[in-house]
Amino acid sequence: MIELPIISRACKAARNEQRKALAATCDTASIAFVGSAFLQPLVAGHANALLVVGALASFVALQGALHYILYRVED
Fold first, then answer.
1. How many domains are there within the chain?
2. pTM score of the predicted model
3. What are all long-range contacts of 11-16, with beta carbons under 8 Å and residues at least 24 apart?
4. pLDDT band for position 28 (50/70/90)?
5. Which of 6, 51, 57, 74 has the most CB within a 10 Å radius?
6. Full domain range(s) for residue 63
7. Is 73 exposed, middle or buried (0-12, 13-18, 19+ CB in 10 A)?
8. What is the Cα gyration radius of the chain?
């Protein structure tokens, strides 16, 4: 018979650190989208309106996810 190890639920501090790491990833991805899809073409003079709108929409969505995740951090 195979026995499965019992995995205990993570403590509050571990859950908070996981949430903060996920929030940092969302923040980094949103800044990368803005830098690569908005600022770089704008500086190069090859701005595309659809690309700018997509970059700003992804930035807003990821920032919203970041704030939602950080709101769930426990005291």
1. 1
2. 0.72
3. 12/74, 15/74, 16/73, 16/74
4. very high
5. 51
6. 12-71
7. middle
8. 19
Question: Does residue 17 belong to any structural domain of this protein?
Answer: yes
How confident is the model at residue 47, as a pLDDT?
Answer: 76
Give 62-70's long-range contacts (Cβ < 8 A, gap of 24+).
Answer: 62/26, 62/27, 62/29, 62/30, 62/33, 63/26, 63/27, 63/30, 65/26, 66/23, 66/26, 66/27, 66/30, 69/19, 69/22, 69/23, 69/26, 70/19, 70/20, 70/23
Do the domain assignments include residue 6? Answer: no
Mean per-residue pLDDT, 58-65: 91
User: How far apart, in Å, are the Cα atoms of 15 and each of 3, 18, 22, 64?
Assistant: 27, 5, 11, 20
Classify residue 49: in a domain, yes or no: yes
Backbone angles phi, psi at 47, to 5 degrees: -70, 135
